[in-house]
Design goal:
The chain is α+β, with helices and mostly antiparallel strands. It has helices at 2-7, 17-38, 47-50, 71-87, 113-120, 150-163, 176-188, 213-228, 234-241, 298-311, 351-363, 380-409, 412-438, 444-473, 478-510, 514-544, 548-551, 561-564, 570-578, 581-585; strands at residues 52-60, 94-98, 102-108, 126-136, 250-255, 261-266, 271-272, 276-283, 290-296, 321-325, 328-331, 342-345, 369-378.
Length: 586
């Protein structure tokens, strides 16, 4: 009774290979149909293959905040930049940190990519500052300030009249003397405490007396900066907005409705961008011009109500508040009544510039300032060459594997080639569907991962083939050898693929950027290797074992008993060798 038990095989071990083959055939048909249904017949390509732009931004520490460049602020900046780019409809953009102070932004070639590039490094530090004085944006030579006189007052009055209406095309004609006195008077005038202070109520505490050394130095410095400021120079405009604390007075540049530069002296910031809840571009029904409408948070509404209540009681130009974005005045409207819930930014906006500003304000200001370190653009032609090179490398690798399989395994190579084809179909269709599904983009490292996967998949076939050969060397015929070899080969294949998948998972978690493409592809193809071996390679071997070409051990089948070191007839030779031992044992 023991002998029949030893030869018994698990139920269904050989009998249902067609079910597994039918299952994998259905999967391939479904994935291919899904590809056509989604309209995505090819995998999406990454920047290095399709072309695009890579921007490297370096974070800068702000005055008084030496520790501002930290992991938390960098991660926040990455999140904001990513939302800005995606808000423009740019798909497949990639934003990640590199080191402690760099951010890498990859923008694929396509619609809105240039627009996205202009926004990624925009800090979007938004402040509402009261206007203290305004003049034409050209530099003026400082002159000694004369004593107050009636003529001087007349000049100030004329200047105020011209700056009261920021929409007018005329420019202030104030002389350097009156400009300097305006700056000095503005610094001496009592200025309310910003509404964001702890008290939340205007304070009548005056500015430091200019007669004191500190106040005089501050007034003189601001006066010289204002007089010398040349708003027609981009370098001067950027320098004017750098290293300015929100709580300090500042000078800034901006354009009027005619597109001419003006320069401003501004008071401390009283409302900032964090108080803006939403911003969107729209057309002003009165003028037909593009504007940006802003809705404030509950706290921002209270702050804005206080500043507009105070400014509405002032005379021009001190009844204006400047909307300052990254150190530049984008609008300086006059206030005639108290406002609270919302505000609008007007100016020389086009539809695109208004939408850009609304997009930036909606997603918030970056917690850090950045400077553009490098910009690298990959053309579509260069990307095509890299893709071609990757495909050639893959074809060479596949050809070498096939040559080896044919030379060593002969007829069994057919099983390996068919399995590789099935694996390639599954990999291609899944990658094509993952593009619109999760935004997966095939880059050059991912192509490398697919090439490496050829070796992993072929290794699984080799493990199974060698187990079958071992069984034949032990004297078994092909059909039982195929079934007996499978449990041991299956165990080895699962352990090997688990190690490969674990390595891919760890690599995906601990790396960023393009290396993740390599890890993702390697992990995907490793999983598909298990699927192909279980649902295709093993069933197809079961079917081929019933074919005479393989079952009889044809020399070109790769399973010739003579080549493998076994002497046919296999079962008979084992019985003859064991027979003489029985009488002696008896």
């Amino acid at each position: 009774m023991a002998a029949p038990n030893r030869g018994r095989r698990p139920a269904g071990a050989q009998g249902r290979p067609g079910r597994a083959l039918g299952l994998i055939l259905i999967a391939m048909i479904a994935l291919t149909g899904g590809m056509f249904w989604a309209g995505q017949l090819t995998p999406r390509l990454g920047i290095d293959l399709a072309g695009g732009t890579t921007i490297t931004l370096k974070a800068k520490s702000e005055p008084g905040k030496p520790d501002a460049v930290n992991e938390t602020n960098m991660n926040t900046a990455v999140s904001i930049i990513e939302r800005r780019v995606n808000g423009l409809g740019v798909s497949e953009a990639e934003v990640q940190t590199q080191g402690k102070e760099n951010i890498i932004v990859n923008i694929p070639k396509g619609t809105n990519s240039q627009q996205a590039r202009e926004q990624v490094g925009t800090t979007a530090q938004l402040y509402f500052r009261p206007v203290l004085t305004v003049a034409a944006g050209t530099p003026t030579s400082p002159q000694p300030t004369p004593s107050a006189s009636a003529s001087g007052k007349g000049k100030d009055k004329a200047k105020d009249k011209q700056t009261a209406d920021p929409a007018s095309s005329g420019k202030p004609t104030a002389t350097p003397t009156t400009q300097g006195r305006a700056v000095s008077d503005a610094l001496k005038a009592p200025t309310p405490t910003p509404s964001g202070s702890a008290s939340g109520k205007p304070s009548t505490t005056p500015k430091p007396d200019p007669s004191a050394s500190g106040g005089t130095a501050a007034a003189d410095k601001l006066q010289k900066q204002f007089l010398a400021l040349n708003c027609t120079s981009k370098t001067a405009r950027v320098a004017a907005g750098e290293n300015v604390k929100p709580s300090d007075p500042a000078v800034a540049c901006g354009k009027d409705s005619a597109g001419q530069w003006e320069k401003y002296v501004l008071g401390p910031a009283e409302v900032n961008g964090k108080d803006v809840d939403d911003a969107k571009a729209t057309i002003d029904q009165r003028t037909g011009q593009w504007i940006v409408q802003m809705d404030f948070t509950s706290g921002g509404s209270k702050k804005f109500e206080k500043i507009t209540s105070r400014l509405s009681q002032q005379q021009p130009p001190m009844n204006q508040f400047a909307i300052v974005l990254d150190g530049e005045v984008v609008s300086a409207p006059s206030v005639r009544t108290t406002l609270s819930a919302n505000a609008e930014i007007s100016g020389s906006f086009t539809q695109q510039s208004a939408q850009d500003l609304g997009n930036i304000l909606s997603y918030g200001a970056l917690p850090l300032s950045f400077e553009e370190q490098s910009v690298t653009t990959v053309t579509a032609a260069l990307g095509g060459e890299q893709l071609k090179a990757g495909l050639i490398a893959g074809a060479i690798g596949l050809a070498l594997v096939i040559i080896y399989l044919v030379a060593y395994y002969r007829g069994l190579a057919l099983v390996a080639i068919l399995s590789l084809i099935v694996s390639a179909i599954l990999t291609y269709t899944i990658m094509a569907l993952l593009g619109p599904g999760i935004g997966f983009a095939l880059n050059l490292p991912a192509v490398c991962g697919a090439i490496v996967a050829i070796g992993i998949t072929a290794d699984s076939f080799i493990v199974y083939f060698e187990r079958i050969r071992d069984e034949i060397r032990e004297g078994r015929t092909l059909r039982p050898a195929v079934e007996r070899a499978w449990p041991r080969a299956r165990r080895t294949i699962l352990v090997s693929d688990f190690v490969s998948f674990l390595a891919a998972a760890v690599l995906f978690i601990v790396t960023v950027g393009k290396v993740q493409g390599f890890a993702f592809t390697l992990g995907l193809t490793t999983v598909l290797d298990v699927v192909v071996v279980f649902l295709f390679t093993k069933p197809i071997m079961t079917l081929l074992a019933r074919r005479k070409f393989f079952a009889d051990g044809h020399p070109w089948s790769g399973l010739d008993p003579k080549r493998l070191g076994a002497k046919p007839p296999l079962r008979r030779s084992r019985r003859v060798s064991s027979a003489p031992t029985d009488p002696k044992e008896a």
